[in-house]
Amino acid sequence: MYLLAIQVYTVAGEVVYEPEDETLLVSDDKITSHLSRPHQIRTLICKQKPKLMRKYGYPSETHTVFTKDGYILEMHRIPKKGAQPVLLMHGILDTSATWVLMGPKSGLGYVLSDLGYDVWMGNARGNRYSKNHTSLNSDYVEFWDFTFHEMGKYDLPANIDYILANTGYDQLHYIGHSQGTAVFWVLCSEQPQYTQKILSMHALAPIAYIADMKSPLFRTLVLFLDFFTAASRMLRITEFMPNTKFLVDHSQLVCHDNAMTQEVCSNILFLVAGYNSEQLNKTMLPVMLSHTPSGASIKQLEHFGQLMKSGHFRKFDRGYLRNQLEYNRMTPPDYDLSKVKVPVALYYSMNDMLVSTTGVDRLARELPQVIDKYLVPMEQFNHLDFLWAIDVKTLVYNRLIRNLRRVENFKLKHANKGLQNMATAGVAISNNNLQKMHALATASNNTPNTLPLTNANANANINLNA
Question: What's a Pfam family in this record (predicted)?
Answer without folding.
Answer: Abhydrolase_1
